[in-house]
Amino acid sequence: MFSSLRVILSTAFIGIALVSVQSFAAEEQGPPGLNEKVSEALQQKMKPQLDAKNWDAALAVIDSVLATVDANSYDTAFLSDIKAKIFLQKNDYAKAIAPMETTLRLADKHPNYFDKKAVLDTIYFLAQIYYQEGTSSKVSSVQQQYFNKSSAYIKRWLQISPKKNQEASLFYASILYNQAVANPDKVDLTLVRASRKEVEEGLLSALKPKEGFYMLLLASMQQEADVAGSAEVLEQMVKMKPENKTYWLQLMATYLNMGNATEKDETKNRENIARAINTIERAQVLGHLKTPKDNYNLVTMYYNAGQFGKATDLLYGGLKSGEIESDIKNWQLLAYSFQQVGQDTKAISILQEASKQFKTGQLDFQIGQIYSSMDNKTLEAYNSYGVALKKGGLDKPHSAYMFLAYTAFELEKFDDALESILKAEQTPEGAKDTQLLRLKSAIQEALKEREAAKAALEVKKI
What we know:
- The chain is about 75% helix and about 0% strand.
- By secondary structure, the chain is an all-alpha fold.
- The model is unreliable at about 1-30 (pLDDT under 50).
């Protein structure tokens, strides 16, 4: 915001250093001219300090002279103007405000003191400085005071400026927006809309609008919860700045938010997820959003869109290549994805591959569950549950014991079934599981029948 100001200041101080103060004061448009004693003091005492860029010493000279002149004189106006510029040169913007406002007050009272351009520059600088001070403050009430001052000055500048330029328009829109959100707990939507209106006018005023217009328009739309409008703006932003990774992330997130908002409408939901997928894939072509996390997000988008085949291929390829983090949950998701497309055998193969990397019985337990859902795979399920319990590390050991007991019962391995039930009873969940008692009763009844059958067979042999 202060780049143009710095150029102007540097030019101004080069001028001050090279010419005499008296000639600097005597402009063609006819300012009164400096008091002779003031001019002499500045020429002999201040100019050497300015030439040496000894700003504090120059300020001391100005203050000593100011104390001797009429507060409403041209001398005061001229000295205040120089004093303000020195503070700006020192980057001490807050201290520049008072002398700059003194200069402006006297210029308003005496139109011949400064030309129109000098007055316009002073007004614009004041708007900039108050804005800078407002954005630097963390106190909402203080921010509001500074933004109000800045707004008043920029409005005045716009009213008398011969030509409204893009920079000023963007600056004014920024002030309005910051006024609107100074109190985050009570955003002023009227000011937000005013900022948006100024931005929209600025966008129409140039063939190549400044990027800041789009950023402000996006912020305004977000404040008004205009998600669809935000997406349109972001599409323009990624087109204008395709190298900006942040814009791609924001666009993707916006489409996902639109998907969440239309969750009950399956068609629109999938359309918005498809847009998010398209966004990340466009970004990846440009080299953005290619981290393992980004690649995993793409998989989940395809999954949420119901494209299980594509999600599965991306996840499997990413896990094998390292483009997606190889952790147990991702392998489990991959197996689940194969199940969703009816490839149970492939899901089992994936979990078996993962079990070589992760020494936990949880994967074998899942293998057992898949086998349990398949025809004529009870023995394989039984063996998988046994391996799972042997390895340990299970989320719910009680469930593994129960599944092992069920499969053992189906295979008429009643002793193993009873042993599993007894171990299940020892878990915290076992005491609350009513199914456990029913299964235990059934197993015990089967054991009794088996023993009775054995006894009857022995009797026949006799």
